[in-house]
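Quarterly update from the structural biology core.
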Amino acid sequence: MSDVSGQEPSWKDWHCYRNPLRVYSPDFDILVSYFNQVYPIIDASDNTERDRFDVCFDNWIKQDDWVKIIHNIEVDLINFSKEEKEFLNTFIDWITDALQHTSVIVVEGNL
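Predicted structure, tokenized:
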């Protein structure tokens, strides 16, 4: 993944992580609330401001926004059931690992 401004990443650039993560409802609904907490963001694909998470299309989220998302989830973990905590911790682990390989993670909306 290129961090060079003005260079458009190709599908291959962002769709090559060795271990893609798929999240289905209702788990996705939990995550969307955390995604929305960091908006507006600057979209990593074209450096334009995005007002909200797009539940129907691609969301190019930069590392600094992921750090905020992870922090917000960790602060709230005490409010979740054991099963939800396990899911959220698995999600955090996946994101943290992925950020060792890239500075942008694309979240595809699933509606």
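The chain has four helices and four strands.
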